[in-house]
Design goal:
15 strands, 10 helices, single chain, six-stranded parallel β-sheet, 364 residues, nine-stranded mixed β-sheet, Dihydrodipicolinate Reductase, domain 2, Rossmann fold, alpha/beta, binds nicotinamide-adenine-dinucleotide
C-alpha cells in the first residue's frame, strides 16, 4: 500500500488518547476523523493532539458517511461497542474494538457475523498479549512443556482500585470489575491454552466496597460488581477457577496457575503488567526429581517490552495497522474472544440467578 492508512477514532474519551499516541508514531498511518456523542468532544480531542486535518463529528454514523477511511478504533464505553463496531464493519471498515468485546454475548456474536459478512478485520484490544513474558508463557504451554493442561486458576486482583468514571455506571459499562479487568484475566488464562469452549459457569459477584461510602465516594450510585469468583467447566476436561477484584482486604487473590500432566506454571500473584517483573515459576519432574525453576528473560532488556522494546499498547495498535496493510487476518480475532465474552456473560447470569448456568454460544 503506497498511500497512508486512513484511520478514524470512535469515542474520544480516556483510552482514545493512547490509540492516538500510537497512530501518531507510524509514518504510514494518518488519523483522518473521529466522533464522540458528547458535543465538541471529538473536536477538542483533535485540537489537543494537534491533528488539525482530522474531521470531528458527533455520531459514528456521520463520521462513517462523510470520511474516507480504511479502519477505525472503537474506543466507546462497553455498551456501545457493538453498535459502533457493526456500523463500521457494514460500511466496509476494519475495526479494532477496545476490551471487553461487548456487554452481552449476543452483541459479540452479531459483531463477528458483521465482520464475516464484510470480510473485514475485527480485532479486540487485549494489549497484555504483547507483553514479552506473557508471550513466553504462552509459547511454553504451546510447546507441550507442561503436558495436557487440566486446571487453570486466575490470580492477582486489586486491594483498592475502583476506577470511577464510566466504569462504574451499569448503563455505560454493563458490568464493573468483570468487564474492566476480569476480561484480561480470562484472556491471560485461556489464550495460553487456545481458548477451549466454555460449557458451564457457577459464579458469585458482589459489590461490598463500591456500595460502602467508607471505601468509595460514589457509593450512592454504584451499580456494578467489584468482586467475582467463578467455577468454569471448559471443553477438554479443563477446570477454570476465576477470581477478580477491584477492592478487597487482601493484597492478592493468589497466583495464576496452569497445571498440566507433565508440569505446571505459576505467575506469583498473577501477571503484573505495570511496574515490576512478574515472578514466573516452572515446575516439573526430571529423572525422579521434582524441579522448581524461575523463568527470566534471557536478554538484557525490559521484560515487559516486546523484543523491539515497543510498549504493549503501541504494539497492539501497530499490529492492527500492519494486519490491514499486509492483508492478514485479525491479530486478536473477535471469533476467539467470543469465548471470553461467553464466560463474562455466564458469570453475570449465574451470579444473578444464584445457580450454575449452561453456556450456549449461538451459531456464527
Ligand atoms: N486497553 C486498555 O488498556 C483500556 C484502558 C481503559 C479503557 N479501556 C476500554 O476502553 C473503553 C472506553 O474507556 P474510556 O476509559 O476511554 O471511557 P470514556 O468514558 O472516557 O470514553 C468513552 C467515550 O465514548 C463516547 N461514546 C460512547 N458511546 C458513543 C457512541 N455511540 N458514539 C460515539 N462516541 C461514543 C463517550 O461519550 C466517551 O467520550 C472501555 O470499553 C474500556 O474498557 C481499555
Amino acid at each position: 500500500m503506497s498511500k497512508k492508512l486512513r484511520i478514524g477514532i470512535i469515542g474520544t474519551g480516556g483510552i482514545a488518547g493512547p490509540h492516538m499516541a500510537a497512530y501518531k508514531q507510524f509514518d504510514n498511518v494518518e488519523v483522518v476523523g473521529g466522533a464522540d456523542i458528547v458535543p465538541g468532544k471529538a473536536k477538542a480531542f483533535f485540537e489537543k493532539w494537534d491533528v488539525p486535518d482530522a474531521q470531528a463529528f458527533e455520531s459514528a454514523e456521520e463520521l462513517i458517511k462523510n470520511v474516507e477511511m480504511d479502519g477505525v478504533s472503537v474506543c466507546t464505553y462497553n455498551t456501545t461497542h457493538a453498535e459502533c463496531t457493526i456500523a463500521a464493519l457494514e460500511a466496509g471498515l476494519h475495526v479494532q474494538c477496545e476490551k471487553p468485546m461487548s456487554f452481552t454475548l449476543q452483541e459479540a456474536v452479531d459483531m463477528v457475523k458483521a465482520s464475516k459478512k464484510a470480510g473485514k478485520i475485527l480485532t479486540i484490544g487485549f494489549q497484555p498479549r504483547y507483553s514479552y513474558i506473557r508471550k513466553k508463557v504462552d509459547h511454553m504451554i504451546e510447546s507441550g512443556a507442561i503436558g495436557k493442561v487440566y486446571y487453570i486458576q486466575s490470580g492477582g486482583g486489586r486491594r483498592r482500585g475502583i476506577p470511577g468514571s464510566t466504569f462504574v455506571d451499569a448503563e455505560k459499562a454493563g458490568f464493573g470489575c468483570l468487564g474492566d479487568i476480569g476480561c484480561y484475566s480470562i484472556d491471560e488464562c485461556l489464550h495460553a491454552v487456545k481458548y477451549p469452549r466454555p460449557l458451564t459457569v457457577s459464579a458469585v459477584a458482589t459489590d461490598y466496597f463500591g456500595k460502602n461510602p467508607k471505601y468509595w465516594s460514589g457509593a450512592d450510585t454504584f451499580n456494578v460488581d467489584d468482586f467475582s469468583v467463578a467455577f468454569v467447566r471448559l471443553e477438554g476436561d479443563i477446570t477454570f477457577v476465576f477470581k477478580q477484584s477491584w477492592a478487597m482486604h487482601a493484597d492478592s487473590l493468589g497466583d495464576t496457575l496452569w497445571l498440566g500432566t507433565e508440569g505446571g506454571i505459576k505467575i506469583v500473584n498473577g501477571f503484573n503488567y505495570l511496574n515490576k517483573p512478574s515472578q514466573v515459576m516452572y515446575f516439573t519432574d526430571v529423572n525422579g526429581l521434582q524441579i522448581d525453576s524461575q523463568m527470566l528473560p534471557s536478554m538484557p532488556f525490559d521484560p515487559y517490552a516486546s523484543p523491539s522494546n515497543e510498549d504493549a499498547f503501541t504494539a497492539k495498535v501497530r499490529d492492527f495497522c500492519d494486519a490491514i496493510i499486509e492483508g492478514r487476518s485479525a491479530p486478536i480475532p473477535g471469533e476467539e474472544i467470543i469465548y471470553n465474552q461467553a464466560i463474562l456473560d455466564g458469570i453475570y447470569r449465574s451470579a444473578r440467578l444464584k445457580k450454575e448456568v449452561e453456556i450456549e454460544i449461538p451459531e456464527l
